Sequence to fold (488 residues):
Amino acid sequence: MLEVRNVHKSFGDNEILKGVDLKVEKGDIIVILGPSGSGKTTLLRCINFLERAEKGTMDFDDIHTEFKTASRHQINAIRKRTGFVFQNYNLFANKTALQNVTEGLTVARKVPKQEADARAKEALDRVGLSDRYDYYPSQLSGGQQQRVGIARAIAVNPEVILFDEPTSALDPELVGEVLNVMKALARDGATMIVVTHEMGFAQDVASRVVFMSEGTVVEQGAPKEIFRAPKDPRTAQFLRRILRDDYEYSI
Amino acid sequence: MHINTEFMAETFLASLGGIPVTLEITLVTLLISVPPAFFMALARQRRKGIGSRLASAYVSFIRGTPVVLQILFLYSLLPSLLNYLFTQVMSLQVNVFKWNTILYAFIVFSLNTTAVLSEVFRSALSTVEHGQMEGALSVGLSRRQAYARIILPQALVSALPNICNATVNLLKSTSLAFMMTVQDITAIAKVRAAYGYNYIEAYLVVLVVYILLCTVVQLLFKAVERYLSSYKKLIAA
Fold:
């Protein structure tokens, strides 16, 4: 359904992505792991054209495009068929929770207001915010804001939802509510690409784990294979460090 | 010193007649200045390109010259320049010397206010996080829609105090329009003062009129600000 090949992206002299390939089928839950600076987030942002990759191609259903030469029309078509959940939520500060969700429907997709409201309410209900329709982002907790972010992404019925470290900015006690929403989405058959440091989520929910390091995909496979028997020493080292941190640190 | 209160009362009433002119210059100037100031702010936000450099040069030029000098310069230069342009270059039957001099006031103050407002807008745009634009793009909005619906409404809230400042400054500097023979509040009072050398009284009156006007402007802006920033004030109790 979605396939990117040979993605290259640099910031100045710093080469972040050095030829990444990724293939996603309908219903896949891809979790991308890797140390910080490995290019996970950049890859995700390139797929949604929030960053412009210098090289590489993308196939999204019937859309075939080169990252470098993609037209505004193609970019908009791809964005309309994807949802993006940001680390910092990026909710519209001047809109209520409901308006945050309807904005992409009424303005970008010309859905009539009544239908948009109904769909937005349904999306907010799915993330457990039926009692927060008219709250502004500043009135919501981080976890609630991120759930609005997820509702905003799913309300447009995207073919794939991209999650960029959706729980990294949250207080620890709020991480669970967001992960639960994501797990429910996964059960309902959503196609998701998730960049995260939540190993538990990767183990329980991922259909495939992709391990990235220094701008390349080092290895990928079912979570069981990756977690139990990583083939690449870099994967093994990363997992050792993360899993040890998970269990041994308590400040 | 003798204060002629009767004169003051009469001058007060007479100078009220100048308020429409003062407000007209202020409002027309704002209307003319806002669009170019906005696009200059957008150009300067990009930080590169010819547009940004031109805008930046324009702002430093206007900032670096006194308003009085701009008025003197344009008021003596512009009529003959326009006359030459219309009659010689375009062979039109136009007599620019018969034009209402308020037109020159519009031009001078607009040139000035455009520069001031472009800086106001630039700083206001930079208060809106880049994530707001990314959020808008990610749900399928175009850049233009993102600006119109997400970025500008937020930028406007933080710009309002500075826009108020710029408006009040503009309103006060329209008093210099008397130099272009425009009959505004100041000009009316000055002319009346000249009859019997009642300058002190006249200036006192003008002072009060401007304070009143500026207070009204500030109250209006306060009200608008309160209305537009309602989304910020509603922090959960």
Observations:
- Chain A touches chain B at residues 48-50, 76, 79-80, 82-84, 86, 88-96, 103-104, 107-109, 135-136, 138-140, 152-153, 156 (CB under 8 Å).
